[in-house]
Amino acid sequence: MPFSTENEQIKKFENDEVAQHYFEVLRTLISKKSIFAQQIGLKEVAEYLGEIFTAAGAKVTVDDSYTAPFVMADFKSDNPDAKTIIFYNHYDTVPADNDQPWTNDPFTLSVHYGVMYGRGVDDDKGHITARLTAVRKYIREKGSLPVHIIFIIEGAEESASTDLDQYLTKYKKHLRGADLLVWEQGTRNHLGQLEISGGNKGIVTFDMAVKSADVDIHSSYGGVIDSASWYLLNAISSLRGQDGRILVEGIYEQVQEPNERELALMEQYALKTPEELTDIYGLKLPVLKEDRREFLRRFYFEPTMNIEGFGSGYQGQGVKTILPAEAQAKLEVRLVPGLEPHDVLDKIQRQLQKNGFDQVELTYTLGEMSYRSDMSAPSILNVIQLAKDFYPEGVSVLPTTAGTGPMHTVFKALKVPMAAFGLGNANSHDHGGDENVKIADYYTHIELIKELIRSYEQ
């Protein structure tokens, strides 16, 4: 079929009564702050979504058993034997505080030159309204659905999906057996290809702390007394080689190696390069892997250890000649299948003791398991084939991403094939200032989801 231009997609969006209705719903959603980290607006937004989905004809559950209410909306097919599609989304967002530049108020949906802006417009509220638009358009045109559709929407995704496992345990009998789960979001890459991915890395984050004395000590003793700062620096350095490889016994032995299909998808579709990162971020230090295959393998399929922050001693104006008595650091390990957060942290603790750094105190702060798919499930192959008719630049199919999310939690509970794709672009600025989505991409996602529903017609 012929591809529509960006202007044609915008015109279709503007003339689409259903799309315009839910665009106003999106405007309201953006205006309602729902930030788990600040405990703002979670119940209000969950109840609002319940009202919207009820009005759309769904059977709705708003379960507030835990801090962030869980919203579940069922659209039943007239065919009791129909298959089921699940849409996983989240209504919480990261904050939009004064530390980020915004052209306009982040909680007021604005449109400029075919682009909509607002906190959550891509991550993830815009995906909710676009997918609901597709469902309503199909029902309006056909009268009933050829497939059962269930929306599950959590409110703590940006805070490690707190209590999602509890909700999924509660409702897994209802949700298991689905043919496909469409993940929260996705983007078009810088080539314009729709990225369709099937996994993400896990993570364990932790604090490291050392106290070397009761008080700071005059630095004249530096040749005979160790300081907390040197001790912690050396402890951290002992855990990672200069090439970026983690120097913790037992880590790599547990890593689940990628299979041939996963490696082939990486080779065919992965676009990240050392040169691209150098250009984007203005890197002043050399990348750790120059060879493309080694670079991609490390990026997608291997664990990494990172320092998020480090603090010790005097940082004020001028000089203060001391040996700091305390030092702290925040670290993370990005995990791949085969690695469990608490087990990885235990291995790090044992390695520090073996390396002679038994004074380091570790505190677990956050953890999520990783998930990866080789994208060979028939329902995922169907998505890939359908998408090719909507994106002239084609698709990019990846078995995982380097980011982190609760895919493993969902898969463990529901055992359903999962594919992530959506309406974002390479410069959507998720979690940053001026978060945005192109109207043309928003409407194309509506059309693709509607076509996905249609593909279940018998």
TrEMBL record:
Residues 199-355 form the Peptidase M20 dimerisation domain. Keywords: Hydrolase, Metal-binding, Protease. Pfam families: M20_dimer, Peptidase_M20. It comes from the Bacteria. This is Peptidase M20. It comes from Streptococcus panodentis.
